[in-house]
Amino acid sequence: MTDLQNTFQNLRNYMNAQIIGQSKLVDRLLIALLADGHLLVEGAPGLAKTKAIKILSQAIESQAHRIQFTPDLLPSDVTGSDVYRPENGTFYFQKGPIFHNLILADEINRAPAKVQSALLEAMGERQVTIGNTTYKLPELFTVMATQNPIENEGTYRLPEAQLDRFLMYVVIYHPDIESERQILKLVQGEEKKLPPPPFKKIKENTIFDARQEVLKIPMAPELEEYIVQFIMATREAGRYDKEIARLIRYGASPRGTIALDICARANAWLNGHKAVMPSDITELIHDVLRHRITLSFDAKSEHVTADEVLDMLIERVPLP
User: Fold this and answer.
1) Where are the domains positioned within the chain?
2) 65, 100 in Cβ contact below 8 A?
3) CATH number 3.40.50.300 given to 3-183
4) What distances in angstroms separate CA 277 from CA 55, 98, 230, 259, 282, one per listed residue?
5) Which tens digit of pLDDT belongs to each residue from 194-253?
6) Model-level pTM greater than 0.85?
7) DSSP calls for 110-159
8) Architecture of the domain delimited by 217-316
């Protein structure tokens, strides 16, 4: 392993020690950081989603901010706005919370479409435009948005086309019984303030250097072709099975190809692999593509999920 890989292993171990039973969330958050992307996380309340961002921000040199999305939130509450100075009759721009490095957009589906669009536009363009002026966001900029799957009342569903801006859509579940015991012991002995990481804070340049190493992880041409064939299978599923084609209305966009490629490389790098392995791709297919395929009316009426459709494709698209 390189020095950078060891640094991220220490970070991973530290986060897993503080966030018991959610190793998948930790890994996906680190992959998003390495791939310079954003994360949409769905899970019940109390699964350490907020804590994950806090611990990550404590371990790296960054500024983190939590935005609680509510029905009365305004776009300017996210992006900021021009403020009038009565003493000299001028305006100045007051930056909003979006100008931090790590953003937790809590319960993003609680806010109306205008607010969601303000966040999603900032995620995609890495900038905010107020009036005629454009303001660049920090170079290190990662959003983790959350959705509560339990309650639907008073929520605004995210547009399916806009979901594509998220690198991954991760679904997390309650921890197992042994993890639950460890959580109880951790909380009983935990101080109000989180313990500092047993290593120096990771600098921004270290993260940027790690991203360059991720891009250099080799991938066999056969695996690159598998990614392309799998994405094409979401669009032309009839080549493999007419039943699957009946369940898919729209397949994944080219963003899906790019996302699966970079996530697989980041996963391989994070796990210390010298090159991308087939498992680095297959274990991320659901998280990268579940929000990028649009199911048909038949699939929805039969209660078939995107994950089940992806499982069918994994069985039929040959893996080299």
Assistant:
1) 3-183, 217-316
2) yes
3) yes
4) 30, 36, 16, 16, 9
5) 667 778 899 999 999 999 999 999 999 999 999 999 999 999 999 989 999 999 999 999
6) yes
7) GS-HHHHHHHHHHHHHSEEEETTEEEEPPSS-EEEEEE-SS--TT--PPP
8) Orthogonal Bundle (1.10)
